[in-house]
Design goal:
Order of helices and strands: HHHHEEHHHHHHHHHHHH
Family: Belongs to the FPP/GGPP synthase family.
Keywords: Magnesium, Metal-binding, Transferase
Function: Supplies octaprenyl diphosphate, the precursor for the side chain of the isoprenoid quinones ubiquinone and menaquinone.
Shape: globular
Helix content: over 70%
EC number: 2.5.1.90
CATH class: Mainly Alpha
CATH superfamily: Farnesyl Diphosphate Synthase
Organism: Marinimicrobium koreense
CATH architecture: Orthogonal Bundle
Number of helices: 16
Number of domains: 1
CATH topology: Farnesyl Diphosphate Synthase
């Protein structure tokens, strides 16, 4: 457990229990895959944001626990579908569900997690929360499709890239904070600030994730370095390298994206470094973290908002 989890450690344990309870199904394979995914752990930053936001705003009920579980179910469903689309074989240091059980069960259990999340939302009974999260799941799907369209296209622009990571990653961070604000009956300016905070943290998280794919350690990452290149994903390090590199460097990177070719990964790593693409990507992430922290001025100063500032910094400093 990371230090910023400690201030909501009891809540976190209760959320884990809620997750286990809500994975119940009469179909054994649903439970098997569900438990396999949840037991893989992960940083659980999205449900953590629900818990921290609610505590920062002095929420006194119990629905925050179910709301955190809902966010984790939505996130896990997206991972299941994402791994099928990307034909990924490793996540969080373990074999993916689709590699172990097949694509069809992975997709269908992802559907189960989505539908269970919405059942839990109905039980909470807030149309505002349902409106935010239904819009969110729709936008995530759009982002995944947009990323699929962008695959193996070296002409993807920086603007297009940012649009994808906003929909694919940042929106769930933003919505986790916003629905926690709704549940806590936050003032409109606080709700807006919290959504912006989550958005900026999510953007920073994805920017660093894309940078790590070209400089991370496979064991620490829990996936293979160069996976994005193998899938032909034109992420910011490659986009910037093509913008600023020599014609030969641009041609090499573009060819690797078109072919999803990792055989020239060492040369591409050098190009990313030489063109300053890595530093540029991390600088954009640093700007997102600074914007996230600035939003916290709208909230009370307490242990929970301090932890939220630490979460923003972690998004930048993490190595996996």
């Amino acid at each position: 457990m990371l230090p910023f989890h400690q201030v909501v450690a009891d809540d976190f344990e209760a959320v884990n229990q809620r997750i286990i309870e809500q994975l119940h199904s009469d179909v054994e394979l649903v439970e098997n895959i569900g438990h396999y995914l949840i037991e893989a752990g992960g940083k659980r930053l999205r449900p953590l944001m629900v818990l921290l936001t609610c505590r920062a705003l002095d929420y006194r009920g119990q629905d925050n626990l179910d709301l955190a579980a809902i966010i984790e179910f939505i996130h896990t469903a997206t991972l299941l579908h994402d791994d099928v689309v990307d034909t990924s074989e490793r996540r969080r240091g373990r074999i993916t569900a689709n590699a172990q059980w097949g694509n069809a069960p992975a997709v269908l259990v992802g559907d189960f997690l989505y539908s269970r999340a919405f059942q839990m939302m109905v039980a909470i009974g807030s149309m505002d929360i349902m409106s935010v999260l239904s819009e969110t799941t729709n936008r995530i799907a759009e982002g995944e499709v947009q990323q699929l369209v962008n695959a193996k296209d070296p002409a993807v622009t920086e603007s297009n890239y940012f649009s994808v990571i906003d929909k694919k990653t940042a929106i769930l961070f933003a919505s986790a904070c916003e629905v926690a604000a709704v549940l806590s009956e936050a003032a409109p300016d606080q709700r807006q600030a919290l959504r912006a905070y989550g958005h900026h943290v999510g953007m920073a998280f994805q920017l660093v994730d894309d940078a790590l794919d070209y400089q991370g350690d496979a064991e620490a990452l829990g996936k293979n370095v160069g996976d994005d290149l193998a899938e032909g994903k034109p992420t910011l390090p490659l986009i910037y390298a093509m913008q600023t590199g020599t014609p030969d460097q641009k041609a090499l990177v573009a060819g690797a994206i078109r072919a999803g070719d990792t055989t020239k990964l060492p040369e591409i790593l050098r190009i990313v470094e030489e063109t300053g693409a890595m530093e540029y990507t991390l600088e954009r992430a640093r700007a997102q973290v600074a914007s996230a922290r600035a939003q916290l001025a709208a909230l009370p100063e307490n242990a929970y908002t301090r932890a939220m500032a630490e979460v923003a910094e972690f998004a930048l400093a993490r190595t996996h």
